[in-house]
């Protein structure tokens, strides 16, 4: 893959009308981070601040994620951050199965281009969409296929700050993940 692939994909996402979220978004949010990122983080969907900025995790949940990454000894600038769906669902509702299905090819392509050695799934929506599992409270901190780590969504940590310590310790595990199979994304 050449270095323009992520940029070209981002342009395609910004023009995308594959699902109804294109009618209500201000900006699609393709994702942020370097093409050679070793770690990817996948959230649920852009919120109001992200929709406005066209960038992922820039609101309050983003500030919390930044703090947690810092505490875990990780540099956000070296991580590629995106979401399962690239456009904001109205009122921050959960994305529907249909919207997830329509958007998933973009995420698959991003993973194919970046080929990360660790993929952090933030919350139930990405855990279900990618691994078919649910129940973040019991699954958090677990690694699947040497590639996927499940943890809380930062917004869930914001709602209950007693989860912060566990969140940071989950994120710290990403540092030790070196390689993995791409079985679930093929
Ligand atoms: S959510 Fe995904 S599939 Fe739907 S319009 Fe946005 S980029 Fe396209």
Could you walk me through the main structural features you see in this protein, from its secondary elements to its overall organization?
The structure is a single chain. By secondary structure, the protein is an alpha/beta fold. The protein has a single domain (5-180), classed as 3-Layer(aba) Sandwich (Uracil-DNA Glycosylase, subunit E). The protein is built from nine helices and five strands. The protein has a five-stranded mixed β-sheet, sandwiched between helices. Helix 1 runs antiparallel to helix 5 and helix 4 (60-72) packs across helix 9. The chain starts with a helix and ends in a 13-residue tail after the last helix. Bound molecules: iron/sulfur cluster. The site of iron/sulfur cluster has 14 residues, from helix 2 and helix 5.
What are the salient characteristics of this protein?
about 190 residues, alpha/beta, Uracil-DNA Glycosylase, subunit E, five-stranded mixed β-sheet, 5 strands, about 10% strand, binds iron/sulfur cluster
Q: If helices are DSSP runs of H or I spanning 4 or more residues, what is the number of helices?
A: 9
Task: Kindly estimate the percentage of residues that lie in beta strands according to DSSP.
Answer: 5-15%
Largest sheet: 5 strands, mixed
Instruction: Report the span from N to C terminus.
Output: 17 Å
What is the domain tally? 1
**According to CATH, what is the class?**
Alpha Beta
- C-alpha Rg, in Å? 15 Å
Please name the CATH architecture: 3-Layer(aba) Sandwich
For the largest sheet, list the strands in their spatial order.
2-1-3-5-4
How many beta-strand segments? 5
| Stretches with pLDDT under 50, minimum 5 residues | none
């Amino acid at each position: 893959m050449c270095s323009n692939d992520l940029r070209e994909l981002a342009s395609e996402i910004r023009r995308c009308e594959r699902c109804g979220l294109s009618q209500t978004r201000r900006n699609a949010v393709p994702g942020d981070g370097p093409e050679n990122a070793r770690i990817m983080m996948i959230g649920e969907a852009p919120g109001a601040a992200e929709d406005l900025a066209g960038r992922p995790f820039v609101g309050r949940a983003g500030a919390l994620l930044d703090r947690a990454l810092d505490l875990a000894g990780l540099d956000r600038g070296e991580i590629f951050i995106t979401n399962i769906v690239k456009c904001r669902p109205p009122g921050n509702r959960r994305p529907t199965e249909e919207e997830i299905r329509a958007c998933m090819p973009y995420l698959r392509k991003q993973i194919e281009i970046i080929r990360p050695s660790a993929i952090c799934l933030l919350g139930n929506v990405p855990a279900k969409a990618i691994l078919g599992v649910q129940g973040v409270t019991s699954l958090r901190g677990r690694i699947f296929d040497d590639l996927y780590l499940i943890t809380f969504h930062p917004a869930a940590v914001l709602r209950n700050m007693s989860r912060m310590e566990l969140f940071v310790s989950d994120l710290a595990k990403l540092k030790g993940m070196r390689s993995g199979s791409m079985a679930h994304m093929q």
